[in-house]
Amino acid sequence: MHTILSNERIYDNICLMTVVGDFQAARMGQFYMLRTSRDAPLLSRPISIHNLEQDRMQFLYRIAGEGTRLMAELRGGDSIKLAGPLGNGFPQVKGRIALIGGGIGIAPLLYAARQLDKPDVYLGFQKQPYLTEAFTPYANQLTVQIGGSILEEVNFSHYDYAIVCGPLGMLKEAARMAEGLETKVYVSLEKRMACGVGACYVCSVMNKNGNRKVCTDGPVFLAKEVEWHELSL
Amino acid sequence: MNLACNIAGIPFRNPIVMASGTFGFGQEYARLYDINQLGGIVSKGLTLNPRRGNTGTRIWETAGGMMNSVGLENPGIDAFLAEEMKFWETIEPVRIANLGGSSIEDYVLGAVKITKDTGERHNTHLRGVDMIELNISCPNVKEGGMAFGIKTEVAREVIREVRQATSLPLAVKLSPNAENIVDMAVMCEEEGADAVSLVNTFSGMTIDIHQRRSVFSNLYAGLSGPAIKPIALRMVHQVARQVTIPVMGMGGITSASDIIEFIMAGAEVVQVGTYNFMNLRAGENLLLGLHNFMEQENIQSLDEIRGIIG
Ligand SMILES: Cc1cc2nc3c(=O)[nH]c(=O)nc-3n(C[C@H](O)[C@H](O)[C@H](O)COP(=O)(O)OP(=O)(O)OC[C@H]3O[C@@H](n4cnc5c(N)ncnc54)[C@H](O)[C@@H]3O)c2cc1C
Ligand SMILES: Cc1cc2nc3c(=O)[nH]c(=O)nc-3n(C[C@H](O)[C@H](O)[C@H](O)COP(=O)(O)O)c2cc1C
Ligand code: FES
Question: What is this model's ipTM?
Answer without folding.
Answer: 0.93
